[in-house]
Amino acid sequence: MSGEAEVQFQYTDAADERQTSLAGMWLFLASEMLFFGGLFLLWLFYRVLFPEGFAEATAHTELALGTANTLILLTSSAIYASGIPAARLGRNRVVMVTGAITMVLGVTFMVLKFYEWYKDFEDGMIPGPDFALHGPQAGGAQLFWEFYYIGTVLHMIHLAIGIGLVGWIVWKSRRNVVTHVHSTPVEVVGLYWSFVDMVWMILYALIYLGPRSGA
């Protein structure tokens, strides 16, 4: 099979496929940045309004688990990125291995996050009538935890989609579909995975790195 035959029918050549696919992903990620950007801006706004309540809430977050998950996600991005040059050379086995490791790390992140949510529930960090924190700062603390669950659930959904996309890349590389001509999907999925990583880094700073009163 020639290199040109491996290009999808809607593209004129490999260069057109790469440019169009990357531009499409960047456009999609720009819309996602606007979506998450609004959430983060609102989060920071209320953090300024209720600094004591947010500080008290931050003190009850699981810093060790959050840090461990951050390291896991950063490692997964580095490993996936290491497979992109191999994809451009058509080295399917390397792409398959790096993709599989990335998926395992992504699933590990999700397991740790579910465990963290379990601990949060056990500690009564659920906004509502049974919220464990009381006193004058309880209102601000509840706002923090509302943003926490909204942000982490949205991130988890995006991560799950990312794991599915990486699984698709693993499947393609297993079938030796990735070639020096048709390596664009690996790069496109890499952009999405890096975006998920970036969103988590912002969440990590907002959730765990604020003032930890009472810690």
Give an account of the 3D structure:
The protein has 215 residues and is mainly α. It has one domain (30-208): Cytochrome c oxidase, subunit III, four-helix bundle (Four Helix Bundle (Hemerythrin (Met), subunit A), Up-down Bundle), CATH 1.20.120.80. Helix content is 76%, strand content 0%. The protein has six helices and no strands. It has helices at residues 14-49, 51-58, 63-88, 92-122, 138-174, 184-208. Helix 1 (14-49) runs antiparallel to helix 5 (138-174), helix 3 (63-88) packs antiparallel against helix 6 and helix 5 (138-174) packs antiparallel against helix 6 (184-208). The longest helix has 37 residues, at 138-174. It is elongated. It starts with 13 loop residues before the first helix and ends in a 7-residue tail after the last helix. Residues 1-5 have low confidence and may be disordered.
Topology:
Elements: H1 14-49, H2 51-58, H3 63-88, H4 92-122, H5 138-174, H6 184-208
Helix pairs in contact: 1-5, 1-6, 2-5, 3-4, 3-6, 4-5, 5-6
Descriptors for this entry?
215 residues, mainly alpha, Four Helix Bundle (Hemerythrin (Met), subunit A), 6 helices, elongated, disordered N terminus
Would you report the number of β strands?
0
Describe the sheet with the most strands: none
Please identify the top-level CATH class: Mainly Alpha
Mean pLDDT: 86
Total helix count?
6
First-last Cα distance = 63 Å
CATH architecture: Up-down Bundle
